[in-house]
């Protein structure tokens, strides 16, 4: 009994893993990761800055974009310290409570990103299907309520998952498979029954990213139906063009997620470092690509960014 208590105490130390089989090249591997982190942090910070400082961007679409950039910043910061700590200094140890905290925030920002993408799909549906009522449907108050609902949904879901992990005993190897704490990895290290944890984790995945993806697809079915009913080809093109950035954001979120699932299910013979690199890419690709997509494909964001740069150059 005492041994079980020791296993569940906060004195447990987990060992994170860098890139298996390529430990001698960690310094070199860290270079592209540093570039990706710098791009993600600077790009999303710039998007947030221009939305806050430019009155022309104080509209529902850009409020949702600021939420997306916030979740991407949180996701990047959640993994930054442990990942670069391993690559630069070979710091692999992480305490039980610190591991659960990191896992909580990684999963929280992932759930929030999925929720924000759904909110953005609803925003595009309202803007295209009923443009005259757009401002009255998506008022500032309703956007605040949506934001609070997104945070509450993610927090409640992840709190339950963390509480269930804390009740487990960890008597096996404490070596995790990634350079950050991931819910399935931590759960697999337990020497007690994890069926409830597995069921809760699967339920959380289905009711968040699963449900969100279904409603995003449904939103675009309705958007396409509305656009095709527009007589003018030019108007149809303009309506579709307002969705391009969001479609790109959805793609860079779900494609790495699906790829990671396929590798774990069908890539049993793949080298261990393949799993690690894809898992790291899954968390880094959306924060890196979203600012680029919106800066390139959204004229208002591009103009605002150029205006900020021009203003800073003029002052210097």
UniProtKB/TrEMBL annotation:
<keyword id="KW-1133">Transmembrane helix</keyword>
<keyword id="KW-0807">Transducer</keyword>
<keyword id="KW-1003">Cell membrane</keyword>
<keyword id="KW-0297">G-protein coupled receptor</keyword>
<dbReference type="InterPro" id="IPR000725">
    <property type="entry name" value="Olfact_rcpt"/>
</dbReference>
<dbReference type="InterPro" id="IPR050402">
    <property type="entry name" value="OR51/52/56-like"/>
</dbReference>
<feature type="transmembrane region" description="Helical">
    <location>
        <begin position="199"/>
        <end position="223"/>
    </location>
</feature>
<dbReference type="GO" id="GO:0005886">
    <property type="term" value="C:plasma membrane"/>
</dbReference>
<feature type="domain" description="G-protein coupled receptors family 1 profile">
    <location>
        <begin position="43"/>
        <end position="294"/>
    </location>
</feature>
<keyword id="KW-0472">Membrane</keyword>
<dbReference type="Pfam" id="PF13853">
    <property type="entry name" value="7tm_4"/>
</dbReference>
<keyword id="KW-0675">Receptor</keyword>
<dbReference type="GO" id="GO:0071396">
    <property type="term" value="P:cellular response to lipid"/>
</dbReference>
<keyword id="KW-0812">Transmembrane</keyword>
<feature type="transmembrane region" description="Helical">
    <location>
        <begin position="12"/>
        <end position="29"/>
    </location>
</feature>
<dbReference type="InterPro" id="IPR000276">
    <property type="entry name" value="GPCR_Rhodpsn"/>
</dbReference>
<protein>
    <recommendedName>
        <fullName>Olfactory receptor</fullName>
    </recommendedName>
</protein>
<keyword id="KW-0552">Olfaction</keyword>
<comment type="similarity">
    <text>Belongs to the G-protein coupled receptor 1 family.</text>
</comment>
<dbReference type="InterPro" id="IPR017452">
    <property type="entry name" value="GPCR_Rhodpsn_7TM"/>
</dbReference>
<dbReference type="GO" id="GO:0004984">
    <property type="term" value="F:olfactory receptor activity"/>
</dbReference>
<feature type="transmembrane region" description="Helical">
    <location>
        <begin position="103"/>
        <end position="122"/>
    </location>
</feature>
<feature type="transmembrane region" description="Helical">
    <location>
        <begin position="35"/>
        <end position="52"/>
    </location>
</feature>
<feature type="transmembrane region" description="Helical">
    <location>
        <begin position="73"/>
        <end position="91"/>
    </location>
</feature>
<dbReference type="GO" id="GO:0004930">
    <property type="term" value="F:G protein-coupled receptor activity"/>
</dbReference>
<keyword id="KW-0716">Sensory transduction</keyword>
<feature type="transmembrane region" description="Helical">
    <location>
        <begin position="143"/>
        <end position="165"/>
    </location>
</feature>
<feature type="transmembrane region" description="Helical">
    <location>
        <begin position="273"/>
        <end position="293"/>
    </location>
</feature>
<feature type="transmembrane region" description="Helical">
    <location>
        <begin position="244"/>
        <end position="267"/>
    </location>
</feature>
């Amino acid at each position: 009994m005492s041994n079980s208590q020791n296993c569940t105490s906060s004195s447990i130390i987990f060992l994170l893993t860098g890139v298996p089989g390529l430990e001698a090249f960690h310094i070199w591997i860290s270079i592209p990761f540093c570039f990706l982190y710098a791009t993600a942090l600077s790009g999303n910070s710039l998007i947030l800055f221009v939305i806050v400082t430019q009155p022309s961007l104080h509209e529902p679409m850009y409020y949702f974009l600021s939420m997306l950039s916030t979740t991407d910043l949180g996701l990047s910061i959640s993994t930054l310290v442990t990942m670069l700590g391993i690559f630069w200094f070979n710091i692999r140890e992480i305490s039980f409570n610190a591991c659960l905290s990191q896992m909580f925030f990684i999963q929280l920002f992932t759930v929030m990103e999925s929720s924000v993408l759904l909110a953005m799909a609803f925003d595009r549906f309202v803007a295209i299907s009923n443009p005259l009522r757009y401002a009255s449907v998506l008022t500032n108050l309703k956007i605040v309520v949506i934001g609070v609902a997104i945070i509450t949904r993610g927090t409640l879901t992840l709190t339950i998952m963390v509480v269930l992990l804390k009740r487990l005993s960890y008597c096996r190897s404490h070596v995790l498979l990634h350079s950050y704490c991931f819910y399935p990895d931590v759960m697999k290290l337990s020497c007690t029954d994890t069926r409830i944890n597995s069921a809760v984790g699967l339920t959380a995945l289905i009711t968040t990213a699963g449900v969100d993806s279904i409603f995003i697809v449904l939103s675009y079915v309705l958007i396409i139906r509305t656009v095709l009913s527009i007589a003018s080809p030019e108007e149809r093109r303009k309506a579709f063009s307002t969705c391009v950035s969001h479609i790109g954001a959805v793609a860079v979120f779900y494609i790495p997620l699906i790829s990671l699932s396929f590798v774990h299910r069908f890539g049993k013979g793949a080298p261990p470092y393949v799993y690690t690199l894809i898992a790291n890419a899954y968390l880094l690709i959306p924060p890196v690509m979203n600012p680029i997509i919106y800066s390139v494909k959204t004229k208002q964001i591009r103009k605002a960014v150029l205006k900020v740069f021009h203003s800073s150059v003029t002052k210097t």
